[in-house]
Every structure is written in structure tokens, then in C-alpha cells.
């Protein structure tokens, strides 16, 4: 939870109660006390409901508890408030994929790339969906894009796809 949004920091600086809640939420999250962190983030959301990152952070806690529907709800609220929050799109897609909603996951990855076309993790994860759906060329393109952005594992996967395609063409 690095890089807290400036509007949240300003509110915390001007309101000691918000500052205390925020510190508690971050400490509980770091200590992996998910339920306590969720309560802290919920209290913060009740006080300042228009900060997308609070929903993102609470969603991450729900994700840690494997409560995917609550995580999805929070990630959706985060991107409703701030559609450019690519980290929320990434986590929303992951939850949807884990819940079996492959189409929803794919669409969330696409929205995440609209928000930030430089997010190597979104390219990498969307490539896996394309791969499992049989779109090997699309998967290769996404892995190459992720690789160009610095994702080290992606170039290996793109090369594997090329080798598989060549072997398939040669029927080896």
C-alpha cells in the first residue's frame, strides 16, 4: 500500500481520527490481521467514501481471506470512483478468473490496459487467459508486450509458444 493518494494523505493530516484509522489499517494489513484491517478500512470508507484506494485496499484484504465476492465488489467500487486505477482492474480480473468468470476477467484486464498500457502484469495475466482459450498468437503478443515492459518470465513463455507452434506445423 505504497504511494497513498494525495487526497487521502491531506485528509489524514487534517483529521487526527482519520490519521489514526489509516495508521491502524496499514499496520493491521502489514501484520496480516485482515479482519482488523477490513474494519479499519470500512471505518475510513464511512468517513471518506469517495477515495477509490480505500476500496482497493479493503478489497485486497478480502482477497487475502479468499472472500472473492466482497473483493470483487470493492474493486468494482474502486474503478467506479477512479476508472484509471489499473491495480484495481488487475485484482478485479484475478478475482473473476479465480471465480470462473473468464470473460469478465478478460474484460477487466482490457480495461486495466486502457487505464495503464504500461502495466506489464496485466499483459502477462491476460496472456494466460488467451493461452487457455486457444489464442496462442494473442498470448504470445501479450507476453512479448509484458517482456518489453520488464516482466522477465513473459519472454520465456512467448518463446515456448513459438516453439510449440513450429512443432505443431512440423507435426513433430
Protein model, in words:
With 172 residues, this protein is mainly α. 80% of the residues lie in helices and 0% in strands. It is elongated, with a radius of gyration of 19 Å. The mean pLDDT is 90.
Question: What's this model, at a glance?
Answer:
The protein is 80% helix and 0% strand. It is mostly helical.
Features:
mainly alpha; 0% strand; 172 residues; elongated
Topology at a glance:
Layout lengths: L5 H9 L1 H15 L3 H14 L4 H13 L3 H14 L4 H13 L3 H14 L4 H13 L3 H13 L3 H19 L2
Computed Rg: 19 Å
Instruction: Count all strands and give the number.
Output: 0
| Helix/strand/pairing category | mainly alpha
Helicity, as a percent range: over 70%
What is the mean pLDDT?
A: 90
The number of helices is: 10
From the N-terminal CA to the C-terminal CA, the straight-line distance is 49 Å
- 3D shape: elongated
Sequence stretches where pLDDT stays below 50 over 5 or more residues: none
The share of residues in extended strands comes to under 5%
User: Helix-strand pattern, N to C?
Assistant: HHHHHHHHHH
Largest β sheet strand count, sense and barrel closure:
none
Amino acid at each position: 500500500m505504497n504511494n497513498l493518494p494525495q487526497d487521502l494523505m491531506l485528509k489524514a493530516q487534517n483529521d487526527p481520527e482519520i490519521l489514526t484509522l489509516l495508521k491502524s489499517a496499514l499496520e493491521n494489513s502489514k501484520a496480516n490481521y485482515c479482519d482488523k484491517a477490513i474494519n479499519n478500512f470500512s471505518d475510513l470508507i464511512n468517513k471518506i467514501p469517495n477515495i477509490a484506494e480505500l476500496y482497493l485496499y479493503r478489497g485486497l484484504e478480502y482477497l487475502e481471506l479468499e472472500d472473492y465476492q466482497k473483493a470483487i465488489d470493492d474493486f468494482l467500487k474502486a474503478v467506479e470512483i477512479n476508472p484509471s486505477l489499473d491495480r484495481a482492474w488487475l485484482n478485479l480480473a484475478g478475482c473473476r478468473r479465480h471465480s470462473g468468470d473468464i470473460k469478465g476477467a478478460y474484460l477487466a484486464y482490457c480495461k486495466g490496459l486502457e487505464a495503464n498500457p504500461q502495466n506489464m502484469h496485466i499483459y502477462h495475466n491476460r496472456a494466460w487467459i488467451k493461452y487457455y482459450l486457444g489464442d496462442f498468437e494473442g498470448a504470445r503478443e501479450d507476453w512479448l508486450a509484458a517482456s518489453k515492459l520488464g516482466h522477465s518470465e513473459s519472454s520465456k513463455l512467448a518463446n515456448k509458444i513459438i516453439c510449440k507452434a513450429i512443432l505443431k506445423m512440423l507435426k513433430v
